[in-house]
């Protein structure tokens, strides 16, 4: 079926990763006020904590493998990139108390800031625009904990810098499996980033959709999309015992991208109608036509 813009009601979803990251240029808060996971009576923090609890309980090796089998048949719907982007008009991040904007606005804010600083890298502009499109999964009855939030490696010991690491994994069955609960788990030393299985979410889904539909975006764009939520690795330096030397280049680009992803939210909404012709040309260049999702 084609992915019709009007086919479902507006979905307001929780992306716990957003509130837990500092957006100092917009929110004008001290850094200590962000990524504050202390237990208090704040309903937002309690909701975030519940979401991560569900994620860290249910995201197991078996679950991720099942999601890959389910969604990588690419037989769920058909849509152009623009149609999928327009669907993000209905996605408002309820976990962010500082801004109440649809995800599509964030997409254009990210893309336009990248375009300003990297005017000659049109692939990078498009990467900024589409990086969250995988969140369309929420319109197909996927639970929020299987779509949004920071990703982590499954199949080995959970790293120390995962959000709520000390309390949220107690019911995850992989923690009782000797095959998965050691430092290396099911992986070889220095096997490399691309050999790892990450928790399932919008990053991995979009990455696989783009590969399936034969995008001509460069490899570094695909890796930015695939790993931009992998915070324990790119921002905390975890999992180095599993990395190859060439993974440093990927991390460099992910970190460059992330400052635009994190620090571009503000009250100034881009003139999206005016910007569409430029980005439609990029879509036609790198990801044309109707895609299988």
Structure, explained:
By secondary structure, the chain is mainly α. The protein has 13 helices and 4 strands. Helix 6 crosses helix 12 and helix 9 runs antiparallel to helix 10. It is globular and about 55 Å long.
Mean pLDDT: 86
In terms of DSSP E residues, the strand content is: under 5%
Instruction: Describe the global form.
Output: globular
Rg for CA atoms: 18 Å
Termini separation comes to: 10 Å
Order of helices and strands: EHHHHEHEHHHHHHHHE
Which residue ranges are poorly predicted, with pLDDT under 50 across at least 5 consecutive positions? 3-14, 22-27, 29-35, 94-99
Largest sheet: number of strands, sense, barrel closure: 2 strands, parallel
Quick gist of this model?
The protein contains 13 helices and four strands. The chain is mainly alpha-helical.
Task: Fill in the keyword field for this structure.
single chain; 293 residues; mainly alpha; two-stranded parallel sheet; two-stranded antiparallel ribbon; disordered N terminus
Write the layout of secondary structure elements.
Layout: E1 11-13, H1 16-19, H2 24-27, H3 43-58, H4 61-71, E2 78-79, H5 81-87, E3 91-93, H6 103-117, H7 122-130, H8 165-168, H9 202-212, H10 219-227, H11 231-234, H12 247-263, H13 272-286, E4 291-292
Parallel strand pairs: 1-3
Antiparallel strand pairs: 2-4
């Amino acid at each position: 079926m084609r992915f019709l813009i009007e086919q479902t009601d507006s979905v307001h979803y929780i992306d716990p990763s957003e509130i837990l990251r500092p957006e100092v240029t917009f929110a004008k808060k001290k850094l200590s006020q962000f990524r504050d996971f202390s237990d208090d009576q704040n309903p937002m923090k309690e909701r975030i904590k519940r979401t991560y609890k569900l994620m860290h309980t249910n995201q197991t090796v078996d679950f991720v493998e099942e999601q890959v089998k389910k969604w990588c048949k690419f037989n769920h719907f058909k849509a152009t990139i623009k149609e999928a982007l327009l669907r993000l008009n209905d996605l408002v991040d309820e976990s962010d108390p500082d801004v109440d904007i649809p995800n599509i606005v964030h997409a254009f804010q990210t893309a336009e800031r990248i375009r300003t600083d990297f005017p000659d890298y049109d692939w990078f502009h498009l990467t900024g625009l589409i990086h969250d499109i995988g969140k369309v999964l929420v319109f197909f009855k996927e639970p929020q904990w299987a779509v949004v939030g920071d990703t982590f490696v499954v199949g080995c010991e959970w790293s120390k810098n995962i959000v709520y690491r000390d309390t949220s994994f107690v019911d995850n069955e992989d923690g009782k499996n000797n095959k998965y609960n050691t430092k290396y788990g099911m992986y070889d030393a220095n096997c490399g980033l691309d050999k790892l299985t990450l928790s399932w979410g919008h990053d991995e889904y979009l990455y696989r959709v783009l590969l399936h539909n034969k995008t001509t975006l460069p490899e570094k764009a695909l890796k930015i999309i695939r790993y931009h939520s992998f915070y324990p690795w790119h921002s905390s330096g975890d999992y180095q015992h599993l990395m190859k030397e060439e993974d440093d280049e990927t991390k460099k680009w992910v970190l460059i991208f992330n400052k635009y992803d994190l620090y571009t939210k503000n009250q100034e909404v881009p003139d999206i109608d005016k910007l569409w012709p430029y980005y439609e040309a990029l879509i036609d260049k790198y990801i044309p036509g109707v895609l299988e999702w």
